[in-house]
């Protein structure tokens, strides 16, 4: 297949990536999605919008983030060279702000006064609260009461940033109930509010919008790597939760002779409930308003999932990933909790960079692959920094004595 026209052709007008994607919505949400879609398709061509977003990326987010050569880590493994795209250095410490700032600017251009979302571990909530403060928008974040108790630092951040954090007390009091509450709010208030999704998932147009805003990562990385080396990397890789940092990293390389690999969390193992490797163990289905590959239980409902990285424990994956795998353009592999923790300690110890546990999955794959390849180069999207994970990792694994050789 010729990928030079890929971005023009996908998604289709009705939000399809092949058979995946689409918008499975309650009747009363259709006009709201249509409004966002129409506004986005107009605004994304406006030079005023594009220039303003560029300025924000440069002056507020601190972009471009660098590409970094891991000399010591690579040497420990062999001759293959590992490079990182440093999204951990993006303002707020992860890639999520890339789409949240885009969504905030879109809200502003659409004349909306308020942005809302749900959050699980609080990472999306913090990124959106940051965008809201920057743009002077009201912000409401729905969060399960159980998650609020577990994620005190992120709740505090959102509140300091001026966001209204609403505890959701029904059902299991976690992410699923928070999603329902956010959508109920949106249904009532979509005249002056926009719903801001946290990954490249959900009904059309969200997977397209989030992808477009995240592609800055791959465009920058491709240019930076070429400037540094004079050629492109052999392998590009990123971790896959919902699939936003990975899709943004991958697509600018889609028409290049580069091996592209998404890495999912294998958690504690292959049993249902022990991992969140949707692409590897899932099957086609519709969930949260879109058609993709998902992990289902016997009743066809979303299966329980687990990963040491809370940003990766989602039972489905963005529809464009399902499509890119079907085309044979992107491959998907897995890394376990233990492999991710190993990568976490090795990058910290050998390079002075403490990675997020999510990003550590991509790095773990890169380290395994580097050993196999024995030469060449691998570019990893380091989606975020690991400060948020330190307490948990130390409690469970100490200071890495089992993982790093201290010679
Ligand atoms: C949320 C998160 C992820 C996973 O989300 P994607 O949409 O798959 O990118 C990965 N890394 C970090 C640091 C995150 O916060």
Can you put this structure into words, describing what you see?
- By secondary structure, the protein is of the alpha/beta class.
- Helix content is 44%, strand content 17%.
- It has a 6-stranded mixed beta sheet, sandwiched between helices. A 4-stranded parallel beta sheet has the order 7-6-5-8, sandwiched between helices.
- The chain starts with 5 loop residues before the first helix and ends in a 10-residue tail after the last helix.
Quick overview:
The protein is an alpha/beta fold and 407 residues long.
Topology (SSEs and partners):
Elements: H1 6-9, E1 16-17, E2 20-21, H2 30-43, H3 47-59, E3 67-70, H4 71-77, E4 81-86, H5 96-109, E5 114-118, H6 123-135, E6 138-144, H7 145-150, H8 152-160, E7 164-168, H9 175-189, E8 193-195, H10 206-229, E9 235-239, H11 244-250, E10 259-267, H12 278-281, E11 283-287, E12 290-294, H13 319-326, E13 330-336, H14 337-351, H15 357-373, E14 377-382, H16 390-397
Parallel strand pairs: 4-14, 5-6, 5-8, 6-7, 9-10, 9-14, 10-13
Antiparallel strand pairs: 1-2, 3-4, 11-12
Bound molecules: pyridoxal-5'-phosphate.
